[in-house]
Amino acid sequence: MALDLTSGARTGSTGRPAPGAHTLRHRRRRERLRTIGFLSPWLVGFTVFFGYPLVATVYFSFMHYNQIKQPEFVGLRNWSYVFTQMPLFGPALWNTVWLVVVMVALRVVFGIGVGLLVTKLKSGVGFFRTAFYVPYLAPPVAATVAFVFLLNPATGPVNEVLGAIGLDGPNWFNDPDWSKPSLVMLSLWGIGDLMVIFMAALLDVPKEQYEAAELDGAGPLARFRYVTWPNITPIVMFAVVTGVVQTMQYYTQALVAGKLASGVTIGPGTVIQPGYPDHSTITVPQLVYQLGFQNFNTGAACVLSLVLFAIAMAVTMLLMRRRSGLLSAED
Amino acid sequence: MTTPTSPAADAVAPVRPARAGSAAGPSAPLPAAARRARRNRVLHWIAVHSVAVALALAFVLPFVFAFLTSVMSDGQAMSGELWPASWHWENYSKVFHTPGFLDWWRNSLMYAVVGTVFTVCSSVPVAYALAKFRFRGRRTAMLLVISTMMLPPQVVVVPMYLVWAQQFHLSGTLWPLIIPMAFGDAYSIFLLRQFLLTIPKEYMESARIDGCGELRTLLRVIVPMAKPGIAAVALFQFFYCWNDYFGPQIYAAQNPGAWTLSYGLESFKSAHSVDWNLTMAATLLIMAPVILVFFFAQKAFVEGVTLTGVKG
């Protein structure tokens, strides 16, 4: 039963409360205090580290502010700058959308595939599961450095092996057409999280349904289509939505791959044009960083942040609607 | 048609023989059908396992290539050769003697350990309240937690940085990343709540009847029962901190003394642009702790990953 504060207040207003009502009101107040007490870390955190900066982002998006002089109101100038004049906005948005569509789709398909494969294995399950899972744990920077090395066009092992069997390997991270596919390969290497989720979902499909389908003479494809798929759809939906949200934040791998592949031998923090080669790896979050922390164009950075926020919220709303179970698991 | 009853085999059992048998009618000799079914099963086993072996090779080879290169001589590491001509284990000690490398280790550990402790301590009570208390606005609170969880960190980073740098003068340290973790982490709260929902209410009620206050109930009854969930959340948070690149780049970039391994590795590569052997040794040294932790806590980890997707 929900805590009903209004009826308690009404009892109080109708003259002297009965002794029972008094203790009840007392208990309710104590319960409310207890709830607030337990929630307090998050209440503070949400206000200070989420509420405040969000409001400040909106404020700064209308300001010219170089982080030294006082902010100065400029109306919608930051907004029109970002949408119409900023040269990197187009490529960054395109790359982010490209990655969201291609990377998420391939990761989900591959995740289901690897999950299916592992559930069909009869021996060595533990070994294979671990082999497919461990790359997911590699820190993104380390995994990216390793892939830049592996896919090095001149001396990398991958092109060496391809050369040995007579194939001419592409330039991978150094070719604008191949840089994003290379990032996709990197993300598929780290499929472990989705594999585990899909494995669990696949093992949860009731066995009787497969048996029934078999009796009806359904082949493997028909069984996947009519038994497996309907059972795992909620998990697929979950994987797609969280994948979209994660890929919208895609930052570290693209930045590190671009920087290292460009061969620029200067330390981090140095201002270089991001997105090597040919802006093919710059993403919206990278642009936020560049504007806010390298160009000190706070206003434009905040505009971009809000664009990102709007998209993230839209995707989250979709998640809430499709998976109301997320919230009401108990009730 | 008799099919194997192990769970994995159920999905695998070929249907084709059953169909073939029924099409051929009762006149088809049973031993032949049974033999065909067995042959099909064997072929199926071979097919599935070959795919698995090939795929496992593709997943493992990056580690193998990185390792082989990490023990090559400087000269050989620049070539395209795959197998080390001589084994240079001293590359690893060279990495440790790189100026700053030990500081990065210390900073990474500090960030990950303190951050994890803060996160768990602050998130458990919030998750408990969201899972077990009844109050107005509970649904809204949960919606807000999920929204925060989904929010790209870049959205609020600019004003947050200005506060930490201008009001508290904490840029150049990792504290702006650690302090917020003492105020609940949305993702951890969400996961813990999902886990706490699975604990029956009766345990809390009986604790209450025994005269435990809410805090005592939480610490004495709930926390011990929620250990697997807490372990999973702690692991996730530890890995998050260890792997974080964006945060240290924002707050620690200007002070190499505060860099973490994840952040320092890139500068290491930039400084040793052609020394792929040293870079690969450093890369493997950064991967090693997470992978070791995983092997020790595999169960908690897999459980946590499953919790994110399958519950609810």
TrEMBL record, chain A:
The keyword Methyltransferase does not apply. Residues 1-25 are annotated as: Disordered. The keyword DNA damage does not apply. Gene3D superfamilies: MetI-like (1.10.3720.10). Keywords: Cell membrane, Membrane, Transmembrane, Transmembrane helix, Transport. One of its GO terms (cellular component) is plasma membrane. The chain crosses the membrane at residues 35-62, 96-118, 130-151, 183-205, 226-245, 298-320. It holds the Pfam family BPD_transp_1. GO terms for biological process: transmembrane transport. Residues 93-319 form the ABC transmembrane type-1 domain. It is found in: Cell membrane. It comes from the Bacteria. CDD domains: TM_PBP2. PROSITE patterns: ABC_TM1 (PS50928). SUPFAM superfamilies: MetI-like. It is a multi-pass membrane protein. Belongs to the binding-protein-dependent transport system permease family. This is Sugar ABC transporter permease.
Automatic annotation (TrEMBL), chain B:
InterPro entries: MetI-like, MetI-like_sf. It comes from Streptomyces cacaoi. PANTHER family: ABC TRANSPORTER PERMEASE PROTEIN MG189-RELATED, ABC TRANSPORTER PERMEASE PROTEIN MG189-RELATED-RELATED. This is Sugar ABC transporter permease. GO terms for biological process: transmembrane transport. Its main location: membrane. Residues 7-31 have a biased composition (Low complexity). Belongs to the binding-protein-dependent transport system permease family. Residues 1-31 are annotated as: Disordered. Residues 105-297 form the ABC transmembrane type-1 domain. Keywords: Cell membrane, Membrane, Transmembrane, Transmembrane helix, Transport.
